[in-house]
Amino acid sequence: MSELKQNIKNHKKIISIYGLGNVGGAIAASWLRAGSKVIGVDLSDKLLKDIKTGRSHKKEPFVSEVFSKALKTKNLVLTKDGVTASKNSDIKIIVVPVAITRTKTDLSNVISVAQTISKGLKKNDAVVLSPSVPPGTTEKILLPILERGSKLKGERDFSLIYNPERIFEGRAIQDIEENYPAIIAGLGKKSTLFGIKLLKIISKKGVLTMSNLATAEAEKLFEGVFRDVNIALANQLANYSTKIGINFWEARTAANSQPYCHLHYPGTGVGGLCIPVYPRIIIESSKKTNIPIHLLENCREINDKMPKKCVKDSLKFLKQFKNPSKINKVCILGLGFRGEVTDKRLSPTYSVVKEFLKNDYNVYVHDPYILSDDELPSNVTLSNDLNKMTKDADLIFISTDHKIYSKLTEFSFKNAKKPVIIFDGRNILDKTKFKHTKIKTIGN
Questions:
Q1: Cα–Cα 20 to 30 A to 63, which of 117, 248, 283, 310?
Q2: Helix (H) or strand (E) segment spanning residue 330
Q3: Are residues 201 and 259 in the same domain?
Q4: C-beta neighbour count of 203 within 10 angstroms
Q5: Which DSSP symbol is given to 355?
Q6: Domain count, the chain
Q7: pTM of the predicted model as reported, rounded to 2 decimal places
Q8: Domain boundary among 171, 187, 211
Q9: Average of pLDDT values for 376-399?
Q10: Is the domain of 439 the same as that of 344?
Q11: Element (H or E) spanning 391, and its range?
Q12: For 316, phi and psi rounded to 5 degrees?
C-alpha cells in the first residue's frame, strides 16, 4: 500500500470536496468507499439537509447510502464554510458546475471556490479541478487565484492537478471506480506524480497521464464533441433516408457491423450539460485563436434545430389522418434529457413544447420520474399518469427514450383519439405491438 493511500485511510490526509451535486456527490462517495475522511462543502441548505436525511442522490445508486453510513461514523462532515474546510483538509477537489450559454463560458463558480480555497491553502496541499473547462483554465485562471490568495507558489509549495469527471448519470460510482481510467495532468512533475498516486487509489482501470493541463482539459471536451458531431451526422442521414425512401435504422445496423463504423442514434434533440455544451466551449475557444471550427458550429445548429423539425414532421404526419381544424391535444412522452434520468437540464423537450404551443395546441407532458417542473409554461400539464396525459390526445410525441416507453403497446393508449397517431422521435417502440396504430419514426 502506498504511503499516500495509507495516510488517506488513516485520515492523516483529509479530502475536501467542493460541490456535492450529481458529480461531486458521486466523487465524494467514491472517496468515502476508499476509507477517506471527507469534508463536503456545498452552499445549498436543501442539498445538505437532503444528504443528512438520506434523500439526496436517490437516482444515483449507492451515493445516499454511502453518505448516511459515513455521517454516522463521522467520516463525512458537511459544511457551507469553504475556508475552514480548506484549512482542515490536505486535498481539495473542486466539482462545482461551469455554466455555459450559447456564446460564453461562465467560470464564476470555479473562480469563487478557488478564492475560498486559497484562504486556507497550506504548504504540501493539493488542489484538483474536475469540471469541464476551456483549455488553459487550470493554469491561467485557477493557479494565479490560488497563488495570490495563499501567498504560496504552485508546484513548489502545493500541487495542482486537472482530473476531469468521466461519469454517465445513473452509474457514476461504477464509472469512477471501475469503467474508465482516470485522466490526470499536473502543473509539473511533482503535481503529476501526486495526481497519479491519488487517482490510482479509486480508479481500478488506472490512470492516463496527459503531458500538460490544457491537453487534459481538451481531452474531456473532445469526448462530448465526438458524440455531438456523430449525432448530427445521424440526424442528417436519417433525414436523407426519409427523403429517398429508405430505412435509416436498418442501414445503420448493417453499417455498424463493420468495426470502424459507429453511427449514433438520431433523435428529437441533444440535452444535458455535457454533449450540447462541450462543443460550445471549443467553438468559443477556437474563435479566440482565429481558427474557428465550422464543423462544430454546423453540427450544433443541426442538433439545435431537431426539436422544431420533429414537431413539424409530426404535425405533417398527423394532418394526413385528422382534420387540422379539429386537432387540439398533444401528449409528449419524456421530459428528462435522455432515458432513465431525472435530469431535465437543456432537455430538447422544452423546445418541443414551445413549438407545439406556437401552433396553439394544448400540451401535456408525461414523465415516469419527474413529477414537477418550474421551467414548463404554466399552461402545460406534467404528470406520471399516462392514461390521464394521453386521454383524448390527437398526437402522442415520444421525446425521451425512457425504457418504460419501449414496453408500450397500442392498448396503452386506449383513451387517445382514434386513429392513434404516434411520432416516435427515438425509435423506441416495438412496432409489432401497434398493428392498428399510425406511427412515424425519424429516418423511416
A1: 117
A2: strand 329-333
A3: no
A4: 23
A5: H
A6: 2
A7: 0.91
A8: 211
A9: 97
A10: yes
A11: none
A12: -60, -40
